[in-house]
């Protein structure tokens, strides 16, 4: 049992804030690509959460939107009337931009042969029995502002794979559920999805706040979880968790290393006190992470998420000569640290976990003025220079043009592509009948040093493994005054 396991510090700080938030998702499910219908449906509550997640609220930026499609290239996503399912959507699309019917004549897709379109349908001569997959995550409250795109992108992946013939020729349905950050609820939802919806695997579960209950349930049911947010060590400790990228501790070394490579070798750490895991998680950075990155720890201080002012910590870090400050806290606290340090004229490089920062917080001009070095386990969503990244951007553009690419979104897409690749490794066996949990576990055991066409690096699993090994290779992202960039592009950095 793992219900008492604590979650690492650098990613759980925001969990405390969830308890005071009145926003909670109901049990309405998202059904994606149901039984070959080619339709993705998001609940009204899901649409509301996506709007809340957009920077500035009320408008979702549209990459490359032409003038006249809303202010500053946005599509207006104001409140919908009850029961309304479309607003400012092109014909044949719902509000996510997902196609809800056959491509129209002349669209360039409807009349293409399967082989020309490529992908999963190229070898499909018949439609096989549908397969149900589940997704569990913390998609409501303040955490939902960060994770919402992961749920939408899981639906986009299902739409995309069904347009290519299905998962090993099996039409995909994804059932997504919100656990509200509650480990007990996460466990209950996993069991419910398995018993009622007959899911044979889970995909891109965003369970950093609820990992203990989630892990217990999948291990009890022997149900594979393929990909997730990768912000807990559990992803590399369980026999039933199959990460699509590098592990949590390697990501810590990664963001520290990025700062060191920028010449910021003297490191201070600020970490929350409300959760025991804060001190436990930062302990890795002190004992191993800083040394592996080539830095020197010069200052270390606990903070509270409820603090409104961090002047004392900023002054102490400045006096210690720290030129890189690790922020083990949520994005809201990061912005307050930035203001406190700026007020005394102290401008070190910040570093930390990007997965705790919403798009609105990343737009904060004071935080941007410091720079924030982060590292992720999969390739940067900012790039388009590999076949895998191009396919990701093309899917978003086709099915959800109003959705901005971001970290949680590309994690979800990469999770889906990992499952596709694994089943491709089984060949005809995956198309011999219904897809079962046993077949998916066998398929995952065939994955060897996989990069998914540039989406990740060195993912390897073995049959009947006790746990997945981290590849040790991460990717750099940096928040600058102009927004997120990838200092090394899509090139991996092995730590």
UniProtKB/TrEMBL annotation:
Low complexity composition-biased segments: 60-122
Residues forming coiled coils: none
Region (Disordered): 55-122
Domain named Leucine-binding protein: residues: 130-466
Phosphoprotein is among the record's keywords: no
Keyword set includes Signal: yes
Source species, domain of life: Bacteria
Pfam families, per database record: Peripla_BP_6
Sorted UniProt keywords: Signal
Cross-referenced InterPro entries: Leu-bd, Peripla_BP_I
Signal sequence, renumbered to the chain: 1-25
Family: Belongs to the leucine-binding protein family.
Protein name according to UniProt: Leucine-binding protein domain-containing protein
Organism annotation: Sporichthya brevicatena
């Amino acid at each position: 049992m793992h219900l008492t396991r604590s979650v690492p510090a650098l990613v759980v700080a925001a969990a405390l804030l969830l308890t005071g938030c009145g926003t909670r998702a109901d049990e309405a499910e998202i059904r994606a690509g149901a039984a070959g219908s080619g339709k993705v449906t998001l609940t009204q509550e899901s649409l509301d959460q996506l709007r809340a997640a957009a920077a500035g609220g009320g408008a979702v930026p549209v990459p490359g939107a032409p003038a006249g499609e809303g202010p500053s290239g946005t599509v207006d996503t104001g409140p919908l009337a009850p029961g309304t399912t479309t607003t400012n959507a092109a014909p044949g699309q719902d509000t996510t931009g997902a196609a809800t019917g056959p491509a129209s004549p002349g669209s360039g897709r409807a009349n293409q042969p399967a082989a020309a379109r490529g992908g999963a349908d190229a070898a499909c001569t018949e439609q096989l029995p549908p397969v149900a997959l589940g997704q569990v995550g913390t998609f409501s409250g303040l955490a939902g502002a960060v994770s919402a795109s992961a749920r939408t992108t899981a639906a986009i992946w299902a739409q995309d794979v069904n347009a290519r013939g299905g998962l090993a020729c099996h039409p995909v349905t994804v059932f997504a559920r919100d656990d509200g950050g509650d480990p007990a609820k996460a466990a209950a939802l996993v069991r419910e999805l398995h018993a009622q919806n007959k899911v044979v695997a889970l995909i891109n579960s965003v369970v950093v706040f609820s990992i203990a209950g989630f892990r217990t349930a999948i291990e009890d049911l022997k149900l594979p979880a393929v990909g997730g947010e990768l912000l807990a060590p559990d992803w590399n400790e369980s026999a039933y968790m199959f990460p699509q990228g590098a592990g949590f501790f390697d990501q810590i070394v990664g963001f520290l290393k990025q700062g060191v490579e920028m010449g910021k070798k003297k490191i201070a750490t600020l970490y929350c006190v409300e959760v025991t895991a804060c001190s436990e998680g930062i302990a890795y950075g002190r004992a191993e992470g800083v040394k592996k990155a080539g830095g020197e720890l010069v200052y270390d201080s606990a903070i509270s998420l409820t603090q409104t002012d961090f002047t004392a910590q900023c002054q102490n870090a400045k006096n210690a000569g720290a030129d890189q400050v690790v922020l083990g806290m949520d994005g809201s606290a990061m912005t307050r640290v930035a203001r406190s340090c700026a007020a005394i004229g102290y401008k070190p490089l910040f570093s930390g976990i990007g997965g705790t920062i919403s798009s609105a917080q990343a737009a904060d001009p004071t935080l941007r003025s410091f720079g924030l070095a982060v590292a992720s386990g999969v390739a940067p969503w900012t790039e388009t220079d590999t076949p895998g990244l191009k396919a990701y951007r093309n899917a978003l553009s086709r099915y959800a043009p109003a959705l901005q690419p971001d970290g949680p979104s590309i994690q979800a897409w990469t999770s889906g592509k990992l499952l596709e690749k694994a089943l491709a490794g089984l060949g005809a066996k995956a198309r011999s009948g219904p897809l079962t949990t046993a077949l998916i576990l066998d398929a995952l055991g065939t994955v060897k040093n996989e990069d998914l066409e540039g989406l990740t690096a060195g993912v390897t699993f073995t049959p009947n493994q006790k746990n997945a090994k981290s590849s040790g290779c991460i990717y750099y992202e940096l928040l600058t005054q102009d927004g997120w960039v990838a200092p090394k592009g899509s090139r991996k950095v092995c730590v």
